[in-house]
Specification:
This protein has 229 residues and is an alpha/beta fold. It is built from eight helices and nine strands. Helix content is 31%, strand content 21%.
């Protein structure tokens, strides 16, 4: 059942003609009528059903305007690298003992980084970490010897882009309190990343079939695609 607040928002907005993101941001922000700082979210439908294969995108993008979220980062590494991880800003650092805690279900972190040599031990926890999207992955920069860079990237504003089996991608570009300039820069960074993924996956035709923008508790609007300045 819709709340009184939601009932006051515009109706059938997805049926309106598509507009560029710079024109839609003010409308989306106007619909942020809750008391908290709502996220501004994108939803893409991609053309993932190809003749010879299915497109599976899983990558990360460093958002130039940040995400507005504080990310709790954990690192699994050798004892010799633990001080480096701590000085780089990791919230939790450990090795064998920490792996045992994770095995027991202790996962009070949002991003897990691991060195290649420790990944052999951590990979056995695929059934625990996989369903939560926490398993480190070299493609996402979370299996690396460059722990400092991985922690900095995770803390400074990194978003994961991943499509589900139906070709849907959901990703946040920041908060209502962000300037339009920051949100547009983040939007452009995501479009550039998806364009690279199109080349990597040799997609025939357009990769993105449709795109929408909304806020956490708002309504959706169709985006006219194209890089905004």
């Amino acid at each position: 059942m819709s709340s009184k607040r939601f009932k006051k928002l515009p109706n059938n907005t997805t049926e309106l003609p598509a507009e560029t993101i710079d024109k839609l941001l003010s409308v989306v922000k106007k619909n942020c009528t809750t008391k908290f700082d709502e996220s501004v979210d994108l939803s893409f439908q991609i053309n993932n059903k190809q003749k010879k294969s299915e497109v599976n995108i899983r990558t990360v993008v460093n958002l130039p305007g940040g995400t507005g979220k504080k990310v709790k980062v954990a690192v699994v590494c050798e004892e010799s690298k633990s001080s480096d991880a701590k000085s780089a800003g990791a919230d939790i650092v450990g090795s064998d003992e920490f792996i045992e805690k994770i095995k027991g279900g202790e996962m009070n972190f949002e991003k897990l980084i691991c060195t290649p040599s420790m990944m052999i031990k951590l990979s056995k926890l695929g059934k625990v970490l996989g369903p939560k999207g926490l398993m480190p992955n070299p493609k996402l920069g979370t299996v690396t010897d460059d722990i400092k860079k991985a922690i900095t990237d995770a803390k400074s504003g990194q978003a994961e882009i991943r499509n589900d089996k139906d070709g849907n991608i959901g990703v946040s570009i920041g908060k209502k309190s962000f300037s339009d300039d920051k949100l547009i820069k983040n939007f452009n960074a995501i479009l550039e990343t998806l364009e690279k993924e199109k080349s990597n996956n040799t997609v025939k035709g357009d990769l993105i079939r449709s795109a929408f923008i909304t806020s956490t508790m708002g309504v959706s609007y169709r985006i006219k695609l194209g890089k905004s300045i």
